[in-house]
Amino acid sequence: MLKAIGAQKTSDLFKGIPKKILLTRDLGIPSGLSELETRSHLFALSKKNANVSDYDFFIGGGVYDHFIPAAVWALVSRGEFLTAYTPYQPEVSQGMLQSIFEWQTSICELTGMDVSNASNYDGAEACAQAVLMGKNISRRKKILVSSALNPEYMAVAKTYANANGLEFVEVATEGGVTSLADLAKKIDDATAGVVVQSPNFFGCIEDLAGLGKAVHGKKAVFIVAVSEALSLGLLKSPGYLGADIVVGDAQSFGIPMSFGGPHAGFIATRNEFVRHLPGRIVGVTNDASGNRGFIMTLQAREQHIRREKANSSICTNQALCALAATIHLSLLGKKGVMGLALQNHERASWLYEKLSEISGVELPFRAPFFNEFVVKIKNLRAVQEKLLEKKIVFGFALEKKFPALKDHCLVAMTEMNSDEQAERLVSELKAVVK
């Protein structure tokens, strides 16, 4: 290779680098290991990890511990799904195209919207794309975002807004929910869209109908984010309550927590805004012989149209994770999703009541919730550490993202938490809270 490019030795490749910044010392990298040695080394390292199954998890905050039937990943792992990539040739990609179509259908049924795209990377990226949709639809430059939005969604949306010259304004919360009064002060005729999450990051259910009325009063775009998609099996859909765009993450269905990813984001909207959707949309029709067939109908990506006309720069999607979510939803069915959502709410409500009876435990927000809620405990970090010694992962410390909420944590309970686990948590809390 060196001879082919006219070089004498490897160091000749770096002649262009100034000597004062060129690293000349040895990097101290050990010599390579054989496959057997590498395997033994990694196995030794793995023993340092805790066994997750030994711990009780009462934590959510955007990533939720739900049961995944074995059938989900057994089907997803079939070769025709696992090895498929972008279905540019519909005649040989009917299975993958149908799975995307079924995903779109499921998302529309959950959100109450007319049309969905083929998925996004995750909920945060979908939320950011919705902000850009709001700008493009309204032709305005101001975005209002509830401060109760998932902090990760907030960060990504803000990055997209800044890069597109948008004014990014946060709306305050009151009692754990978005303040209608503060929204009324900040919304004006320059507002492109308003982003609200429900259930929000504090677990509280927002008054979407009331918020939507205020947003539409200024002819702005109403964007609703949902990070716990299972809640859509119990609550009225955002579409029914007036949302123009609904975004979120489908991690609750068929996708393991996996240390925070990968997941599958969704974005759905009304028919009138379909050409503003990022990514691509799969449709169904009949071929010349009358047989049903699937094909990519809209492809609003910079790869397919002039860059300045593109709605986004999404170059792929989360088709495999979206397929897992679709299979899980199909296994549950409508009644199953509703039943599972109700079970989550009832179990969380039971825990809420039990914690309210413990001296030293405060429940600062009284708004309705789905399967997680905020708890305040003096010296929270010490309490969490003591519970961790008992192999109980208790809540997400909100001070990390919300400095004003010192000693507050977000507690979740799903169908994965047994009665025995919940009762043990209550018992251990009574022992450590002072």
Describe this structure in words.
- It is a single chain.
- 35% of the residues lie in helices and 18% in strands.
- It is globular and about 80 Å long.
- Helix 3 (70-76) packs antiparallel against helix 10, helix 5 (94-111) runs parallel beside helix 10 and helix 6 (123-138) packs across helix 7 (151-163).
- The strands form five sheets. It has a seven-stranded mixed beta sheet with strand order 2-10-9-8-7-3-4, with helices on both faces. Strands 13-14-17-16 form a four-stranded antiparallel beta sheet.
- It has helices at 2-5, 35-46, 70-76, 79-82, 94-111, 123-138, 151-163, 180-186, 208-217, 319-356, 380-389, 419-432, and strands at residues 56-58, 115-116, 142-146, 167-171, 173-174, 177-178, 191-197, 221-226, 245-249, 265-269, 279-286, 292-300, 361-362, 372-377, 392-394, 396-397, 408-412.
- The chain is an alpha/beta fold and 434 residues long.
- The protein folds into two domains: 52-67 and 333-432, Aspartate Aminotransferase, domain 1 (Alpha-Beta Complex), CATH 3.90.1150; 70-329, Aspartate Aminotransferase, domain 2 (3-Layer(aba) Sandwich), CATH 3.40.640.10.
- The model has no long low-confidence stretch (mean pLDDT 92).
- It is built from twelve helices and 17 strands.
- Strand 3 (142-146), helix 7 (151-163) and strand 4 form a beta-alpha-beta unit.
